[in-house]
Design goal:
Length: 74
């Protein structure tokens, strides 16, 4: 599974719409849709926001592991 499928799965598993996540990231729904489809690269700060939002670490988001470790606390 690549990271595009991973962020889509996280969104769907948590019953969020693309519009919900786009709003959280302060972008348009169309832009978020382009992220999930791989038409536009996801900025690193948005990837970090997604990891924090779903409370998973970046290794999970980036498919380096299938283990859902919690987002590190500061």
């Amino acid at each position: 599974m690549d990271y595009l499928n991973r962020i889509r799965s996280l969104r769907e598993d948590n019953d969020y719409s693309q519009e919900d996540i786009a709003s959280y990231l302060h972008i348009g729904q169309r832009t978020y849709s382009d992220y999930e489809r791989g038409k536009t690269r996801i900025p690193l700060d948005s990837m970090i926001m997604l990891a924090e939002f779903y409370n998973v670490d970046m290794n999970y988001i980036c498919c380096l592991t299938d283990q859902k470790n919690k987002f590190p606390e500061k």
